[in-house]
Amino acid sequence: MRGIVTFGALFMLLALVGLAQQKSLEGVWEGTAQSLQGEQQAKVTLRKNGDNYAGTITGLRGEQALKNIKVDGDKITAISEVESPQGNIVVNYKFTVEGETLKGAGQVDFGGQTYDFTYNLKRTAGAVPPAQGTTPPPAQTPRPQTPQPQQKQSLDYFVGDWTAKWIVRESPLGSGGPKEEQVSFKRAGDGKAIDSRTVGKSEDGAYQQSSIISFDEASKLITFSERRGAIQINSKGDWSSPIIIRFTVDPIKVKGQTLQLRRTISVISAFSFTVTEELSEGGGPFVRLGQGVFTKVSATPAKN
Predict the structure, then answer these.
(1) Angle at 179 between CA 173 and CA 180, to 5 degrees
(2) CB burial class (10 A; 0-12, 13-18, 19+) of residue 134?
(3) Which CATH number fits domain 155-298: 3.40.50.2300, 2.60.120.10, 3.40.1280.10, 2.40.128.20?
(4) How confident is the model over 163-183, as a mean pLDDT?
């Protein structure tokens, strides 16, 4: 009988320990997120919702709901979805609880490129949102929300040296596969335009490209005149939104074939933007041509 009682007590003790570990995950965790764009303030909120967990995460692109939260001891995995012009992007998270700290990493696959970032958070005294189906506490004055930074529509945004990584498919415009580029944007002599010079390498070897970019602040119209070898590409973009530029591209003639190109630039931060291109051949449907991720290396002072 004594052995049975001892076993029962041990079982209850283990159950209580497990329950305490689960409860220790609930709370508000605040700290920093480190990514290619530098260090940013971040917050994770976790709460029990029946037999599962619910929560939110902030720090990289506003606040997103955490989904598919799974807990295994002190390990937590989850995902979130970030809206972009190319559709929802899935971010995968892995966290570890270490006492009053929550450390982990996130990973996102964007345009064939994988990006990693890290979280270092500590538990705070912030209130945990109530689970669904419960009565919320009396409303409190919300903490002011810091607006997300947006880039001013100006040629100065591009001025400087950038690196670019592309994944493209083979087309009449060139070979496919990964490409790496060094791109320099400099103010032209009159200061009203930008000269761009690109030195790149692909599986076929090295190549060079050039372009002239101009921008009308009144109409928010940005124009690109590009030279890719023997191919001339002229496009006009609407930059009325600070986060996205959609281009209309003139038809391109290559070896007697008419091509139609669509291009979108997504402005992510002061140091990063992406370019997504789609191509129609001979009046056919548009298909994904490729995507490039641009990262700023240095800024070049604008000429007065």
Answers:
(1) 130
(2) exposed
(3) 2.40.128.20
(4) 92
Of 60-74, 86-100, 132-146, the one with minimum mean pLDDT is 132-146
Task: Please give the average per-residue pLDDT across 214-225, as a whole number.
Answer: 94
* Helix (H), strand (E) at residue 162: strand 160-168
Contact present, 233 and 249 (Cβ < 8 Å) = yes
pTM of the model: 0.55
Name the average pLDDT for the chain.
80
Residues paired with residue 248 on neighbouring β-strands, in sequence order = 236, 262
Structure tokens at 174: 């060139």
Query: Could you tell me the two tokens for 50?
Result: 């029946």
- Topology of domain 27-124, CATH: Lipocalin (2.40.128)
pLDDT in tens, 63-86: 888 999 998 888 899 998 876 655
**What residues does each domain of the chain span?**
27-124, 155-298
* Gap between the Cα atoms of 32 and 101, Å rounded: 12
